Amino acid sequence: MNVFFEQYFDFSIMGEHFGEVFEAFLENLLIFLVAGVIALIWGLVLALLRQLPSRKAMPIRFLTIAYIDVLRAIPLLIIILLISGGVPFLNFIPKDIRIPQWFGKPDPFWYGVAALVFVYGAYTAEVYRAGIEAIPRGQMEAARSLGMSHFQAMRHIIVPQAVTKIPAPMLNELISLLKDTTLVSVIALSESVLISREILAEQLNSSALTLTAAFFLVICLPGARLVDYMIKRNQGKVARGSHIEVA
Amino acid sequence: MAEPMLHLKGVHKRFGQLEVLKGVDLEVQKGEVICILGPSGSGKSTLLRCVNLLEPPEQGEIFLEGQDICKGPGSGTGEESWNLDFVRQRVGMVFQQFNLFPHKTALQNVTLAPRRVLNKSKSEAEEKGRALLERVGLGDQLGQYPETLSGGQQQRVAIARALAMEPHVMLFDEVTSALDPELVKEVLDTMRELAEEGMTMLVVTHEIGFAREVGDQVVFMDGGVIVEQGAPAQVLDHPREERTQKFLGLVLER
Amino acid sequence: MSRTRLTAVFAVLLVAIGLIAAGCGGGGSTTGGGSETGAETSEGGGEKLTVGSDIPYPPFEQGKKGSYTGFDVELMGAIGEEIGREPEFIDSSFETIFRDVAQGKFEAVMSAATITEEREKVVAFSNPYYLSEQAILVAEGSSIKGLADLKGEVVGAQQGTTGLELGKEKAEASELRPYPEGPDAINALKAGTVAAVIIDAPVAANAVEETGGVEVAEKVPTEETYGIAVAKENTELLEQINEGLATVLGNGKYAQIYEKWFKEAPPKEIFSLGKGE
């Protein structure tokens, strides 16, 4: 049992490498912020494209649904490896885009962000969709009867209401995204898991990984509790009747 | 006689396999109030929704101020080929479930469409909006959100909202059916005033009293067709058709 | 979904998982040793000897399971013959490989592993069996000619290797990227996402020959030697391995295998180092 604590809870190793691991964890947070913001926007775009009503827009709707289905079905890890393994070789793309070194961040950072955006865009699109579809049809009908175009109705009536329904499931997706930033370690980005594994190889001890796990716990656990709280509060609201539910 | 405001000819509407409107003909003169009665499933709501193209009809013609709104460029399959803007800016609708925008105040509900669709300035729209809300008796509720208003108040806001677009025809789809009985009167009063000011109105309703007093014509629908049509006194007190008699018998017993 | 349908789906899933697990468990699992130190006798060579190794790492270990080849594989085979054991190579991750052998996951590690003080805290090494140096691998025609030119460049290496250590100490790289596998680093070099890779010299030479498009800019002698690692308590096995190694060094087998894989004769020093002199 002693060995267990030695392997995972060696505090002197944790202390020695604290700064290193923490700095690397900040990298995870950075990926999370960048990819998260972009994915939230991209997901909304996808959700709106999917809602286009006219017959002419059917190919767009079809492509959007196909995109969402495919990207939720392929493991994120594979997408990361596909992007970083293949894109650099696509010579028809100019080097600055093919091997991005934007804002001082190396290419694995951007490949990782890209993969996360592609995949989480699909997941957030579904959350938006649920929010949009929860809005009673009468809202769209009233808006259209008043002469608003589909786009105007979406912009002023549907989407503003939809986004108030989705914080809980959206937060869930974001927590998932934060955890998945660790997958970028597989393409040699110096984030917390990679650094911890290096320390593991040097010191033959897993305590740095435990420390990393602790960092994630500190953020994700309260996050999950917050989601639970939001869901409960929303259920209370519906029960007390502040929403008009269509009979 | 002048050209009718609204003229429906042979309108058919089907939902999948189910044919809901089986050939409806109706003429509405300017300023007329047509009250439509009938059992549920008779197609009366659908008829209204065809007039403002929420449900485009499969077959038939609907002339609004002389223009056939069912015809448009192209094959007429997608919504775009129907003259949508022309219709929606001349025809206003009030719904059974109010459908107010819950995230906007009463005034905002009324001014939103004039600002975004008619491109009126904020002050212009608000001035008009205030006047309309006063007209329906809600001048002191401008800043209230729908959830704080009673059903009757909400429905009156909905009427003001539709009027803000300066429609030529107003459609009322069972607008008092979802209200508590004591709130029905205020809405009917508003509608009566509107009629007296000369608005052309199509009113689907169960309120026989209203039909009798305010209606210029009463239409009885059943099974997707107009069974009987005429002056209120005639249809309501001396119905000719058996189906009409049956329906009225049931309704009046209440 | 109705309750009964849900239950039915779960039942089907459980059965499916059960069948798959049974299939996997039955069909010849090859997780090595654990506490068993040599149970099955396999045809020909005697008792099995489980050997952990990070595969692939050409030309030391490469190939598919069941038909691994490489310098390490063949040398271990030769040593095994001498001591009456049949080595079975098991693919493992390099960064945990020393801890794994210390805890008995397999009996030995033969993985182009450099003998270092740090590692000797956890495992015991045989006498050296290979003299190594690091190489700086670059794209063909690169302007990088040596360690000094790495200043300010993006450099790759494999996680947990002495190549990475060298990079940290001597190269003033703008970014040092640790890849999970050696070949990943080489791929990155070919893709152009890193400017150079620091990796064991023979691996670099192999890359030049096999994959092409890359060249060795400089060889950096580091006086590194490779050893076979075993758990510290396993003094008996260690003795046997050292004896076997000495034998193959003396009878020409070592030289034969060396020339096959490195296309040159082994350096004189290895003969004395390998015998523990």
Overall geometry of chain C comes to: globular
How large a portion of the residues of chain C is in β-strands, by DSSP E?
15-25%
Weakly predicted, low-confidence segments of chain C = 24-43
Which word captures the global form of chain A?
flat
Poorly predicted ranges of chain A (pLDDT <50, ≥5 residues)? Answer: 241-247
- Biggest sheet record of chain A: none
Overall mean pLDDT of chain C stands at 85
Q: How many angstroms does the end-to-end distance of chain C come to?
A: 75 Å
Distance between the termini of chain A: 62 Å
Helix content of chain A: over 70%
Structural class, from helix and strand content of chain C? alpha/beta
What is the string of SSEs of chain A from the N terminus onward? HHHHHHHHHHH
If helices are DSSP runs of H or I spanning 4 or more residues, what is the number of helices of chain A? 11
Describe this entry's structure for a reader:
The complex is a heterotrimer of chains A (247), B (254) and C (277). By secondary structure, chain A is mainly alpha-helical. Chain A is 77% helix and 0% strand. In chain A, helix 9 packs antiparallel against helix 11. The termini of chain A are far apart. Chain B is of the alpha/beta class and 254 residues long. Chain B is built from 9 helices and 10 strands. In chain B, the strands form 2 sheets. A 6-stranded mixed β-sheet of chain B has the order 6-7-8-3-9-10, sandwiched between helices. A 4-stranded antiparallel β-sheet of chain B has the order 2-1-4-5, covered by helices on one side. The model of chain B is unreliable at 73-78 (pLDDT under 50). Chain C is globular and about 70 Å long. Chains in contact: A-B, A-C. The interface between A and B is medium-sized, with 26 and 32 residues.
